[in-house]
Amino acid sequence: MRKILCILIFFALAVYGQQERIAIMNIVDDKDSIALSDLSYLTDKLHDIASNILPKNRYGIITQQSVVDTNYIVQGRVGRFADKLLTIKVDLYDVRSSHLIGSFAGDSKDLEGLLSVLEVKAPKLFEDMPGVSSAVTTEKSAPVANKECKNIFNINELVFKIQSGFTTQLKDCSTTLAKNIALAKSPFGKKTELKEPKAFMMECTIDGIKQKLSDGVDEYLKLAEKFLQNTLNSASAADGSLDVQKLSKAIDNMNIDELLNGIKRMATEDACAVDTPYVALVSDGEKGDTTGFKEDTYKNFTTGQRWGTLFLNAIPGVGSIVIMDDWTGAVVQWVMIGVGGVVGSVVYFGHIDGQEELLSIAIGSYVGYLASCFVWNTYRSVTYDKPGSVAFHKYDGFNFAVLPNKQGEFKAYLMFNKGF
Fold first, then answer.
1. Rounded CA separation 117/104 (Å)
2. In this predicted structure, what is the pLDDT of residue 5?
3. Per-domain residue ranges for the chain?
4. Which of 287 and 37 is assigned the larger pLDDT?
5. Which of 83-92, 324-333, 396-405 shows the lowest per-residue confidence on average (mean pLDDT)?
6. Highest CATH level, class, for 17-145
7. Which range, 114-118, 131-135, 188-192, 239-243, has the best average confidence (pLDDT)?
8. Do 73 and 94 meet the contact criterion of CB atoms below 8 Å apart?
9. Which residues contact 148 (CB under 8 A, 6 or more apart)?
10. Neighbours of 179 (CB within 10 A)
11. How far apart are CA 247 and CA 338, in angstroms?
12. Residue 142 has pLDDT above 50, yes or no
């Protein structure tokens, strides 16, 4: 028994002696304003990534407390850029040579974003260490080589559709959530059971995005789910529930590039992903349009409509309003007719009997303004184009909305809008 125990101890010491030790130091904050618990979590995440990447028969990961006699040291530091962005820089040093053998840096508007930077960039830092790349390649390439691709997809198409549709879908779902909450609180609203807000946002956003994507990209949707979860967490109240009032700001502050970079990195190891140029089709705009403007449904004024506007404007402004909804064109005509009428009236009624030339001037002035109005009417009817983007298209008429105020109380608003 003693012999067996001695052999096991000797074997363990031999393995330990062959391992290279890598110490992951606690991530620090330059301004000491980030909670230690948050910094510890970032350190733990870096530790987990290293554990998953580094082969255990080659490297032993130790903590800052046992840094003596280590071969490598990983140091991370959180800083600031322009007092607007949080930055993170992680360096990997060879203790024996004191050389920097690898590093990465990134930035974000919040800690959740820094966490995403670690998840995307830290694996590459450890994969480039001696003796790791071959092990990682052997481990990962085997299943990829034998992977049966039921669906081949274009990674550039996937990135485009997520980039163009993710934020829009997220905002649409947040609007729907706000309406549902408002209706639930309203005495006139339909009393239906509301889904937990975070669960609703996850289901609504991911399902909406999934409908726009091709088959075979479920693994990439998991990255989108994780990214969305971090965004929702940044809009959480103290009790962990979703704070709807913070959600809009969280959406505006998220960095979609972090998600896209993670997708691109995953695709480099996916035999089913092809990297070929992708040109967005009109139908893509219908599915993931970010402006609300569908290019295939846009039609400018026809020649008949322009002629109709010109003739109807024989009564100043009628054609501009009825056919083109062009209030600017109508108002200019009214002003020109009005000025002409005023000038003609002043001259006509101010003339002295017997001075026929003043009467001629009055009539000529009015006719001149009519001619100017005709020229403007012709020019405007020919050159005015129908607005194409809803961002510049005015909404005329009554609108009803139920919105939360700063205190979280929901108020009903009745508005009338008329654009010129």
1. 9
2. 42
3. 17-145, 154-293, 303-383
4. 37
5. 396-405
6. alpha beta
7. 114-118
8. no
9. none
10. 14
11. 52
12. no
